[in-house]
């Protein structure tokens, strides 16, 4: 299993780069400065997977913030199971209504921690959600699965 902490737009090693065959660097150094170019292009390289998962999580948040419902829903795997026993169809209808019903949405990701094991990944972070007059901060976990070249959300949970 590989674990990395993403701060801002930089990926920061948390004791895993040595296991990936790459020297660990100070917390402020981005992975791109650490990993050889050939390693970042290798789809089986753990650092590549970590960067891809971070990109997928940030793209999901950006789609939500842009109120782009189609791109937001496309971040979820076909076997995504909504919480509280909802059907996928009902969940999608609820998400569409909630997203398009807001005049402004901002979804921030803080303290992102990503774990990758094979074709599965977990992304844990503090989500700062702002919409119209509402602001909520909560811990969120996204469980992702690699499907072809993409990392898609299979499960999500929230809680303090």
UniProtKB/TrEMBL annotation:
<dbReference type="InterPro" id="IPR056203">
    <property type="entry name" value="Cds6_C"/>
</dbReference>
<keyword id="KW-0413">Isomerase</keyword>
<feature type="signal peptide">
    <location>
        <begin position="1"/>
        <end position="23"/>
    </location>
</feature>
<dbReference type="GO" id="GO:0016853">
    <property type="term" value="F:isomerase activity"/>
</dbReference>
<protein>
    <submittedName>
        <fullName>Ketosteroid isomerase-like protein</fullName>
    </submittedName>
</protein>
<dbReference type="Pfam" id="PF24125">
    <property type="entry name" value="Cds6_C"/>
</dbReference>
<keyword id="KW-0732">Signal</keyword>
<dbReference type="InterPro" id="IPR032710">
    <property type="entry name" value="NTF2-like_dom_sf"/>
</dbReference>
<feature type="domain" description="Cds6 C-terminal">
    <location>
        <begin position="53"/>
        <end position="155"/>
    </location>
</feature>
């Amino acid at each position: 299993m590989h674990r990395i902490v993403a701060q801002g737009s930089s990926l920061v090693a948390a004791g895993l780069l040595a296991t990936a065959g790459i020297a660990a660097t100070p917390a402020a150094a981005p992975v791109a400065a650490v990993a050889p170019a050939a390693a970042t292009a290798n789809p089986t390289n753990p650092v590549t997977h970590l960067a891809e998962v971070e990109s997928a999580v940030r793209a999901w948040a950006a789609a939500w913030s842009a109120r782009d419902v189609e791109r937001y829903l496309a971040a979820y795997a076909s076997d995504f199971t909504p919480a509280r026993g909802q059907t996928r169809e009902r969940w999608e209808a609820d998400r569409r209504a909630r997203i398009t019903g807001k005049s402004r949405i901002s979804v921030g990701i803080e303290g992102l921690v990503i774990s990758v094991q094979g074709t599965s990944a977990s992304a844990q972070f503090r989500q700062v959600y702002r919409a119209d007059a509402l602001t909520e901060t909560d811990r969120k976990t996204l469980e992702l699965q690699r499907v072809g070249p993409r990392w898609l959300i299979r499960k999500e949970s929230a809680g303090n």
